[in-house]
# Entry
Amino acid sequence: DTAVSQTPKYLVTQMGNDKSIKCEQNLGHDTMYWYKQDSKKFLKIMFSYNNKELIINETVPNRFSPKSPDKAHLNLHINSLELGDSAVYFCASRYRGETQYFGPGTRLLVL
Amino acid sequence: EDQVTQSPEALRLQEGESSSLNCSYTVSGLRGLFWYRQDPGKGPEFLFTLYSAGEEKEKERLKATLTKKESFLHITAPKPEDSATYLCAVRGGKAAGNKLTFGGGTRVLVKP
# Structure
């Protein structure tokens, strides 16, 4: 009965590669988010989608492109990976209330 | 821009030694202050939401309070299983894009 799930859990790749991270929620929520947590543990929002529509797009390089095929899924595609992209990426979802529920995270290491 | 500052960065406690974590914030049109707990290698787990000054919420050994400028998370008689990083976040109004802004967290270690 996983609420917010992400795949893969770990991702190790070379600089310059393109990779995708997938997120799915079974809570029936209509808003989903991507956050980046750096080595100092700061969580920063990257994107937010509501009913498949982009509503928040923070200052993120355009190598990062979110895609929401439906309300339950929000994927993150990253082109031309750089060393500085190494971090933990969290997906979250929210219904009409304020509380966001987070997934377990995807640990990305770019070599 | 919304800002959240948490202190201390790290806290070492003996089991049973009560303490408080601080979360100072500046936000335009507060629409909620959130406390999350994060265990190593896991995603943040929701604890509390506070909406207005004077509000308090409790869960087991944790109690969260809110003023107009800060929030406190009180840990009463902590146990080793309370060891975690505690994150504070605020949700601003529409001008801020309704997004959550997080502080850097307080790492709590409770020794038996």
